[in-house]
């Protein structure tokens, strides 16, 4: 993925030798002399100075990510081996490589900062170039650069220099000269065949050491020379040519840094093998560039995005279904409105049904023996009018009392009570008003089980001629009789 | 065209970033407003759907009660048509009277007051034994038409001892008027 230039600072190229540190970044250079302890570690004061100067040099903005620092290590302590492994899958290959490193190098892989690059493979074999250095040495630099705010990547300086050669894939050698020491790396067909640190007091001694290191069987002819001095007056062995390489002048512009810059620019071939080392994380600071943290950050970002976007995505996704559902519900609602009307109609019908039969039942139940009803008029407003004859006034009173006691009627009036001419009976005219439907709802009207049974018996008796026709059902004593015809 | 200097390139970069930020913010605000409006509409729709669902559920709860009433009256209001209901109800009343052993006399139909949601009223006279007359009252409620007995008058028949005379006024309700009126709780 292409990084955003605004957020990602330019990479820093750093070459570290025993005596100095050279840094290069976007055309600016920096050179810092290094002061070391007897065991080779950089002195604390010097470390602080290096951190301060590198931080100022990188000029990282607060919104930017940590810049990558491509660090080229000097050949001191670096071992280079070409190994041949049987072809295998990635996991198996790594195991085999670790076994080979364990057998070929003086320290176990856990104590080494090592890296490899695959060379050609043929006939079930895979050739690998492995470079390794003591882990503690690299870890010191890793901590130093982490404190500077860099994300360091370590490689071998001698290999990085090869990017400057006219034919990186050819057979040649590179000699980097410093005061009192030199690094020689030999390439055969572009593959590093040997790496040496040469210590020589004089040019002739250096020339002899180079000739000895190259040997007689090496097929190359040219030895590229960088550093200071850039030429050796003493002759090399016969057939070897020393080619001084002119570099850009200025601080930080070492052959390794320029080689790395050329590689990163994309025209210097692939990046030489990188040495893997676990840098000490700066206490109290979260290293966001760690892959595992990056993964969690990505997950958190996805969840956050989902949290923010889902409420807005829901209308787009679910609106169509909701509209359909709403249309279904509205169709249902129209049907239910009809049902509502039907219910209202039926309830109204039920409530307005006058209780004629209940009223008749109460009259029949309350009528005294011998009473005769000549007419009975009822209407749905609850107005009742009754005309008939009874034995005497006392029975009329009882009849009225029973009607009132039933709780069915709101009022019962004896409008007229007149004795018959023979004084044997009384003609009565009674009006009543039953209570409203809401008040009648709580009343338990209707015949009891005994009364029903008695009515059945009376029915049988009536069929046998025991009761006259025209008697009200369940009417114990009253009869609705036709008036005798007047002659 | 001349090559741009580093400073000019930097200025261009900043300008590009600034314009991109402005466009992103402006466009983002517009997009956010659009989606927010859609969301508000959607939420309103959801609220409507919930309300509607509650209404449907409330009304569905009434269905058993309606079913019971329909069975009680042997009546399905949806099947009633205004044009034929009076004739059908009159026929049903006469049929109920005859099957109950009641002899019907004159029958008079007259239009009822539409303001009282009544379609017509039928006045009928008849004679018969008391149980048959009372049975007719009972059967009128369950003959399958929206009938209400407005008044009933029982009297003795001066000509025939035994059976009684009765005079009924029956009202036929107009269901169509319920359809056109907003129902409470609807």
Structure description:
The complex is a heterodimer of chains A (487) and B (186). Chain A is an alpha+beta fold and 487 residues long. Chain A has 3 domains: 12-166 and 246-287, 2-Layer Sandwich (Nucleotidyltransferase, domain 5); 290-352; 356-463, General secretion pathway protein M, EpsM (Gyrase A, domain 2). Helices cover 36% and strands 27% of the residues of chain A. Chain A has helices at 44-58, 90-104, 135-147, 157-161, 203-214, 255-265, 291-351, 356-366, 393-405, 437-440, 449-463; strands spanning 12-16, 20-25, 28-33, 68-73, 79-86, 112-122, 125-134, 151-156, 172-178, 181-188, 191-199, 222-227, 241-244, 274-275, 372-379, 383-390, 409-419, 426-434. In chain A, the strands form 4 sheets. A 6-stranded mixed beta sheet of chain A has the order 3-2-1-4-8-14, sandwiched between helices. Chain A has a 5-stranded mixed beta sheet with strand order 11-10-9-12-13. In chain A, strands 15-16-18-17 form a 4-stranded antiparallel beta sheet, with helices on one face. The longest helix of chain A is centred in the middle third of the chain and has 61 residues, at 291-351. Mean pLDDT of chain A is 81; it is low at 461-487. Chain B is rod-shaped and about 135 Å long. Chain B is built from 5 helices and 4 strands; from the N terminus they run αααββαββα. Chain B starts with 5 loop residues before the first helix and ends in a 7-residue tail after the last helix. In chain B, helix 3 (82-99) packs antiparallel against helix 4 (130-141). Chain B has helices spanning 6-60, 63-73, 82-99, 130-141, 175-179, and strands at 103-111, 118-128, 147-156, 164-173. Chain B has a 4-stranded antiparallel beta sheet. Chain B folds into 2 domains: 1-61; 76-179, Ribosomal protein S6/Translation elongation factor EF1B (Alpha-Beta Plaits, 2-Layer Sandwich), CATH 3.30.70. Helices cover 54% and strands 22% of the residues of chain B. The model of chain B has no long low-confidence stretch (mean pLDDT 86). With 186 residues, chain B is α+β, with helices and mostly antiparallel strands. At the A-B interface, helix 7, helix 8 and strand 15 of A face helix 1, helix 2, helix 4, strand 3 and helix 5 of B.
